[in-house]
Amino acid sequence: MTQMTGGCQCGRIRYVAEVDSDEAYLCHCRMCQRATGGVSIAFRSMKRADVTWQQEPDRYQSSPIALRGFCSACGTPLTFEFLEGSDSMDVTVGSFDDPYHFKPTHHFSPETWHAEWLDTRHLPATRVADNPSTVDRWMEKLGKLPD
After folding, report:
1. How many Å apart are CA 23 and CA 20, to the nearest integer?
2. C-alpha–C-alpha distance, residues 97 and 102, integer Å
3. pTM score, two decimals?
4. Which of 8, 34, 98, 128 could connect to 76 by a Cys-Cys bridge, CB 3.0–4.6 Å?
């Protein structure tokens, strides 16, 4: 088991998770698309007992069968949890402090995926450091680019 930390963007909600592998998955269901505003979301399935919250996330019932954990201060999506009958939950990969630890191993709900968004390596890309207006804003506010 590897101990990993994570939390929301503003830092109000933090957690420590005991992780036993680098496996994660992409969910493409319409509920996740609507909940995140994205075309999919990356999740790491966890046993509830393996996640310790320093501050519990806020939760809302997103469907008749599930809750979603999030931060009400910054809006970061944090979890997907069935209402009943499961000792597991899904934690958003992007909320881990080291999301690069995880590797996608499968897709869920491919019937609603947006295939054109799955591999976009052929598209032009601009690094943050190469966008003067973004760099100027960060330098003015923080004196550096964000991590």
Report:
1. 9
2. 11
3. 0.91
4. 8
Concatenating the DSSP letter of every residue in 44-101 gives EEEEGGGEEESSPPEEEEEETTEEEEE-TTT--EEEEEESSS-SEEEEEGGGBS-GGG
**Virtual torsion, Cα 146, 43, 84, 21, nearest 10 deg:** -110
* pLDDT tens digits, 82-118: 998 899 999 999 999 999 999 999 999 999 999 999 8
For residue 36, how far is the Cα from the chain centroid?
A: 9
Three-state DSSP at 26 gives strand
Of 73, 78, 83, the C-alpha closest to 95 is 78
- The closest of 88, 68, 63 to 78, measured between CA atoms, is 68
**Counting beta carbons within 10 angstroms of the beta carbon of residue 103, is it exposed (0 to 12), middle (13 to 18) or buried (19 or more)?**
exposed
> How far is Cα 124 from Cα 93, in angstroms, rounded to an integer?
25
112 sits in which H/E element:
none
Average pLDDT (26-38) is 95
